[in-house]
Every structure is written in structure tokens, then in C-alpha cells.
Amino acid sequence: MVNNIKEIRKILDFSEFGTYYFIQIFKRRKDHPDLKYGVIRLECYSIQSIEEFDNIIDEIIDLCNKEGARAYIRLNSQNILQTVYRCSQRMIDNAMRNDIGSNNKNLWNSESGKGGKKDFWVIDIDKEHLDVYDDIVNHVKSIISLHFKDVRKQEVDILTIPTKSGYHIISPPFDVRIIDSGAFIGTKMPTIQIQKDANTLIYSK
């Protein structure tokens, strides 16, 4: 079981009018080898406050436990009005093509999965990295912290949360050149993935 609920809750920011975060629950073939598709989306939530987040957590945990599923949150927050605009534009585009059927059905979920702010990046550290360098998480965090302190003259909170196969390091955007093969001279380090459109694990059975 992986439970990052408390850690994720700390970084949610609803201070701007219209802000919401997008949560999805997936059932994956990686966890269920007999699954027909690679990924099945079971449920989606668009939360507009900490209270809403707190109110749906039990439901998310129950569904994940029942289905052997994973709950992910998109850390780049959205604005409701902007998403409504994008949905409306796509509906108009579909209508202009005489396509007024099922393509409009999941527009909100589709548009909530893109755009929005760029508050956080996720650095994905997997078992393949840990096998090469077991202290890589602390090493990467120290590189990023030093970058912000020396170059940007600011202190930042960098969050580390466990995943099913390693860790996610969650950081504000930075100069990607500070994390390259040169930072790990003398190792056979696999490429470290920096996800600029950040989704991370909330809960998994």
C-alpha cells in the first residue's frame, strides 16, 4: 500500500478563484495481468477546496482497495472558467464537423488533463535508479535545493513521496540542465525522467 494523502494535501493551493485539481483512479494491467486494456479509468474528480478533497478521500481509498486501483492527482492546478472555455470551443469544433456524438461525452475529463498552471514538476526515481545509486533521491534533492539557493536566491520545499516502484521528487520548475549525466559522473545511471506536467500518486492498495 502507498498512502501519500497527507503529503499531497499540504501542497494544494485553492487561494485563486476558480482553482481546481483533477484526480483520476486507474486500474492498470501492470497490477492486473488479465486486464483487457493497458489502463482503465474508473473515476474522476474535480476538487475545488480542501474540504472537497477531505470529503472524497474515503471514497477514493475504498475504490482503490476494492478494485486494486491507483489514484493520481494532477498537481498543475486548473481554472474552471478556462476549462469551460476549452470544452465549449471543442464542442463548437465538433459541431462544425457534424460530430455531435460521443466525442463530447468526456470533454471535461479530457480538458482537465492538460493546460493549467505549471507549479510543479515531478522527477521520477525508479528501482532502476536506486539499484545504481541508493542515495539518488537525496542527491537529486540537494542539487535542486542548491540551484534555487545559489542561482535564484530562494529556499524551496521539495517533497519526496513513495510510488509503487520508487519515489517522486516534487519540485517547482528548475533549469533541467542541472540534472543530467554530468551530475552522476562515474555511474551507469539510467535517464532520469522529469515530468513537467505533473501527475503523482495519492493512494494505491
Summarize this structure as a short list of keywords or feature phrases.
5-stranded antiparallel beta sheet, 4-stranded antiparallel beta sheet, 9 strands, 205 residues
Task: Describe the 3D structure.
With 205 residues, the protein is an alpha+beta fold. It has 2 domains: 2-112, no CATH class; 121-197. It has 6 helices and 9 strands, in the order E-H-E-E-H-E-H-H-E-H-H-E-E-E-E. The chain has helices at residues 5-11, 50-67, 80-96, 107-112, 127-132, 136-150; strands at residues 2-3, 19-28, 39-47, 70-79, 121-126, 159-162, 166-171, 193-195, 199-204. The strands form 2 sheets. A 5-stranded antiparallel beta sheet has the order 1-9-4-2-3. It has a 4-stranded antiparallel beta sheet with strand order 6-7-5-8. A hairpin with a 3-residue loop joins strand 6 and strand 7. It is globular. The N and C termini lie close together (4 Å). The mean pLDDT is 90.
Query: Strand content of the residues, in percent?
Result: 25-35%
Query: Total number of helical segments?
Result: 6
Order of strands across the biggest sheet? 1-9-4-2-3
User: How many β-strand stretches?
Assistant: 9
Query: What number of structural domains do the residues give?
Result: 2
Mean pLDDT: 90
Q: Name the helicity range.
A: 25-40%
Q: Report the structural category.
A: alpha+beta
- What is the molecular shape? globular
